[in-house]
C-alpha cells in the first residue's frame, strides 16, 4: 500500500464488501478522479491565470496602450469642457462671474422698514443695509467662502482695507440673513449719510481677523447702488 494514492477508505454503513467502498481525499487534497495535492491545484490555477493575463496584454503593443491612455485623457478633457460650456451659458453663473448689485427693500406694510443693497460675485460680496429711521441701524457687511457661520453671534476685531486705507474696527460675526449656513462680518456705520457717501463707483475691499485674510474683492457700478440706496433711505425717513 506504500505506492497507493494518499486516500482513505470509507465503508458504507452496514457494508463490509471492500468492492463497495467509496474513496474520499484527505482535506489536504482535492478530487476529481485520483487525489491531487491541493497546493498543486492552486499552482496550476495561478499559472493559467498568468497565461491568460499575458495573452490579454499582448493584444496591444506599447504604442497602442499609450494611445488608449491618451484617448481616456482626451475624453475626460471633453467632459470637463462640456460642463464648463454649460456653466458659462447659465445666466446666474454669468451674473456671478462678472459681479453685480441686487436691491431689496421692505414692503409698505412691514412694521420695520429697511433697505438693502448687495454686491455679489463668485468670491462673495458686500452688503449695505439701513433699518428704520434715524442714524442707528446702519451697517455694511462682508461675506464669502472664507467667513464661516458662527456658533452664535459674537464680537470680533477686524482689519478693514478700502481703497488702500486700513482701519481696525469692532464688528459682529453673525449669520448671513438669507442663508444661515454661512457667516457675515457686520460693521456699524455712524449714519446713513456716511454709508451712502462712502460708496464709490469702483471700490476694492479686504477683511482680515487674527492676521488671517477673510475676504477680498472689488465692486463696480457703485454709483448705481449709491443712487438707489440714497433714495430708499429717504423713503424710510418719511
Sequence-ordered SSE layout with sheet pairings:
Blueprint: E1 7-10, E2 22-25, E3 29-30, E4 36-37, H1 38-57, H2 62-89, H3 91-98, E5 100-105, E6 114-121, E7 124-131, E8 138-143, E9 154-162, E10 165-176, E11 179-188, H4 192-197, E12 203-209, E13 212-219, H5 222-236
Antiparallel strand pairs: 1-2, 3-4, 5-6, 6-7, 7-8, 8-11, 9-10, 9-12, 10-11, 12-13
The side-by-side strand order for the widest beta sheet comes to 5-6-7-8-11-10-9-12-13
Kindly state the percentage of residues in helix: 25-40%
Tally of DSSP helical segments:
5
Low-confidence stretches: 1-24, 26-31
CA-to-CA gap between the ends?
Answer: 117 Å
Radius of gyration: 38 Å
CATH C-level name of the largest domain: Mainly Beta
Strand content: 35-45%
CATH topology of the largest domain: Immunoglobulin-like
Mean pLDDT value: 76
User: How would a crystallographer describe the biggest sheet?
Assistant: 9 strands, antiparallel
Number of domain units? 2
CATH architecture assignment of the largest domain: Sandwich
**Strand-pairing-aware structural class:** alpha+beta
User: Helix and strand string, N-terminal first?
Assistant: EEEEHHHEEEEEEEHEEH
Q: Tell me the number of strands.
A: 13
Shape: elongated
Would you mind describing this structure in some detail?
With 238 residues, this protein is α+β, with helices and mostly antiparallel strands. The chain has two domains: 1-59, no CATH class; 99-236, Immunoglobulin-like (Sandwich), CATH 2.60.40. The protein is 32% helix and 36% strand. It contains five helices and 13 strands. It has helices at residues 38-57, 62-89, 91-98, 192-197, 222-236; strands at residues 7-10, 22-25, 29-30, 36-37, 100-105, 114-121, 124-131, 138-143, 154-162, 165-176, 179-188, 203-209, 212-219. A nine-stranded antiparallel sheet has the order 5-6-7-8-11-10-9-12-13. Strand 10 (165-176) and strand 11 (179-188) form a beta hairpin. The protein is elongated, with a radius of gyration of 38 Å. The N and C termini lie far apart (117 Å). Mean pLDDT is 76; it is low at 1-24 and 26-31.
Amino acid at each position: 500500500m506504500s505506492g497507493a494514492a494518499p486516500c482513505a477508505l470509507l465503508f458504507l454503513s452496514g457494508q463490509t464488501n471492500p468492492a463497495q467502498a467509496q474513496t474520499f481525499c484527505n482535506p489536504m487534497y482535492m478530487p476529481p478522479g485520483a487525489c491531487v495535492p491541493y497546493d498543486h491545484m492552486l499552482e496550476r490555477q495561478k499559472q493559467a491565470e498568468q497565461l491568460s493575463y499575458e495573452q490579454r496584454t499582448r493584444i496591444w503593443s506599447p504604442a497602442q496602450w499609450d494611445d488608449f491612455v491618451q484617448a481616456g485623457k482626451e475624453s475626460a478633457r471633453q467632459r470637463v469642457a462640456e460642463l464648463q460650456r454649460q456653466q458659462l451659458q447659465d445666466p446666474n453663473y454669468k451674473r456671478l462671474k462678472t459681479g453685480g448689485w441686487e436691491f431689496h427693500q421692505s414692503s409698505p406694510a412691514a412694521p420695520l422698514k429697511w433697505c438693502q443693497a448687495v454686491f455679489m460675485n463668485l468670491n462673495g460680496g458686500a452688503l449695505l443695509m439701513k433699518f428704520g429711521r434715524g442714524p442707528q441701524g446702519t451697517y455694511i457687511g462682508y461675506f464669502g467662502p472664507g467667513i464661516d457661520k458662527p456658533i452664535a453671534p459674537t464680537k470680533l476685531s477686524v482689519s478693514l482695507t478700502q481703497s488702500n486705507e486700513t482701519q481696525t474696527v469692532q464688528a459682529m460675526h453673525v449669520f448671513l440673513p438669507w442663508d444661515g449656513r454661512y457667516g457675515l462680518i457686520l460693521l456699524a456705520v455712524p449714519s446713513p449719510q456716511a454709508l451712502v457717501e462712502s460708496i464709490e463707483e469702483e471700490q476694492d475691499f479686504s477683511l482680515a481677523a487674527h492676521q488671517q485674510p477673510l475676504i477680498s474683492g472689488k465692486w463696480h457700478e457703485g454709483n448705481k447702488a449709491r443712487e438707489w440706496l440714497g433714495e430708499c433711505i429717504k423713503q424710510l425717513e418719511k
